[in-house]
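In this section we turn from sequence analysis to structure. A common task in structural bioinformatics is to predict how a protein folds when a small molecule is present, because the ligand can shape the pocket around it. The inputs are simple: the amino acid sequence and a SMILES string for the ligand, here calcium ion. Study the lines below before reading on.
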Amino acid sequence: MTRGFSLIEMMAALVIASIIIAGATGAVISINRFVVDTSRKAVVLDEAKRLEEYLISVAQGAGGGAVRPNAAVLIENATDPAPPAIAPATGGMGCRAISGLPDCDDAQQGADRLTLMTNLTGFPQCAVTGTTGVNLNVGAGSGACCLNDASGGLSSWDGMQAVIVGSAGTASVALNSPNASGGNCRVVAPPGQGSGVLPTALGSVGFPATLVVVQASTYFVDRTTSELKIWNDNDGNGNAAPDELTVVHDAVHDLQLAPGYDGRPSDGILDDRAADDDEFLFNNTTDALFPGNSNFSAVTVSQLTTLQIGVVVGTRSEISGGNEIQLLDRAAPITTPDIYLAQTTSKALLRNLAVFTQ
Ligand SMILES: [Ca+2]
Ligand SMILES: [Ca+2]
Ligand SMILES: [Ca+2]
Ligand SMILES: [Ca+2]
């Protein structure tokens, strides 16, 4: 006769079975968490690369018209001393104090800022013959005053950003109160969105000069919200109002920039060894401050050919607990609890360079 299970045997079997099932379920859950975590890390690296490609493509379009890329790619390097310690128009400087933007200085947020200026269509390039007070004196275009030749008419100049290109240099201005009446052809030109990186003294450019209207966009990372944003100074007052800010991408934790100058030597090749004596600035923590100094004493601003752009994008990851990333010349690694950080860097060859001979 076959003997059945006793109650005790039955209960023991149930307990053992439940332990096995619980263990298996736990294993499945942790495998599942691992799979989710791994796929998040892959996705975030893809996102970082896509963001990188976007920034490279906009940087490649900087300049145009009479504006050289070296006056159209403006960098505020977080580890450099604040202005006016560094002379402007040198290809690198510290963070400007701009109302409405987070302090990018290394002691505060430490992410670099990039201002790109791109030639805007719809506006003619006007000759500038000189200044009268705060006014630029503009030459004749097809008619009595070049300002009348804009496709949007005279008033369309108001509030635009512009670069003045002269024989002695370049200046960043905003434009106000265009005037073509009474025999005058003038526009008021206060400091523009690139001021403090580019000079603002109108007399410094040398006349005759050329007035070029540009789209000016300042890219920056706000580390408190982990967002990459653009600032467009639409009213030309030098302050960043909330309605002048646009979010480009969230979960961005760092932006670092390293301009490359073909000047050590000028041979068509850019030496990149993440060292003080290579041809990139700000790609290592102890780099020279700007062209004309130290290792870069024989390098000129006009030898800028390339911009290296690095971004750090993050995603939630309890498993990693938060890794450390130190991009280019950032003074110390950054880390955020339970955020996995992915970094990528690429180099943009500045396209509008081909227009100019040095
Ligand atoms: Ca930097
Ligand atoms: Ca403003
Ligand atoms: Ca070289
Ligand atoms: Ca370097």
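Helices lie at 7-60. As an exercise, try to locate the residues that line the calcium ion site and compare them with your own expectations.
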